[in-house]
Amino acid sequence: MNAHDSERIAGLLEDAGMKPVQIGTDADVIVFNTCAVRENADNKLYGNLSHLANLKETKPNLQIAVGGCMAQKDRDTIIKRAPYVDVVFGTHNVGSLPILLERARVESQAQVEIKEALEHFPSTLPSKRFSAFSAWVSISVGCNNTCTFCIVPQLRGLEKDRSMADVVAEARALVEQGVIEITLLGQNVNAYGVDFGDRLAFAKLLREVGAIDGLERLRFMSPHPRDFTDDVIAAMAETPTVMPHLHMPLQSGSNRILQLMRRSYRTDRYLGILERARKAIPNVQITTDIIVGFPSETEADHKATLDLCTEAQFTAAYTFQYSKRPNTPAAEMPDQVPADVVKHRYTELHEHQNAISLGVNQRSVGNSYVALVSEQIGERDSNFKRLSGRIEDSRLVHFAAPNNARPGDLVKITIDAAEPHYLIGTGSEVIPTRGGDVFNAKASTMLGIPKLFNKN
Ligand code: SF4
Question: Is the C or the N end of the chain the one with fewer CB within 10 Å?
Answer without folding.
Answer: C
